[in-house]
């Protein structure tokens, strides 16, 4: 811009990215301006510069261009690692749950097999009662009754085992939930400590 006294003005802008620094220099009709910016892990925009000079004679800013120093420690990446003890505990939990699931599936298969066997024996028993004589029925009845009673005892034992496995499964689920809560609390504390560490590094 040209004024009545022949003064001229110029504007310039600069910026810095990441941990570097940058500057800009602009010429405007015989005048010169500058702006500088620097930052670590961010984006800064330097303010505009403004100088005045005589016609055709640019003037440098007072003090010249200043050197920007960056703390290299702020550019180093953070070493974030998960506690191996937490990983070991979670791996044990998964193995225990897998074992319980396998036991439960095996128990279900046994119950179904015994139920099928019981139905087969009942069917055979009905056929024998219909086809055999009274003597034959009397001779076979104790044998089948004993076998059926044995199957019923096995079924009762499996039912009791199922109750025990259900209780173990609930206890394991409660334990997993407790470890999950502790793990989340540990992650939150670690995140808070890392944030405080970053703030302290910026203040250095």
Automatic annotation (TrEMBL):
Keywords on record: Coiled coil, Intermediate filament
Gene Ontology CC terms, in alphabetical order: extracellular space; keratin filament
Ranges where the IF rod domain occurs: 93-204
GO biological process, one term: intermediate filament organization
GO MF terms, alphabetically ordered: structural constituent of skin epidermis
Coiled-coil annotated spans: 97-196
Pfam families according to UniProt: Filament (PF00038), Keratin_2_head (PF16208)
Family annotation (PANTHER family): GATA-TYPE DOMAIN-CONTAINING PROTEIN, IF ROD DOMAIN-CONTAINING PROTEIN-RELATED
Protein's recorded name: IF rod domain-containing protein
Taxonomic source organism: Micrurus corallinus
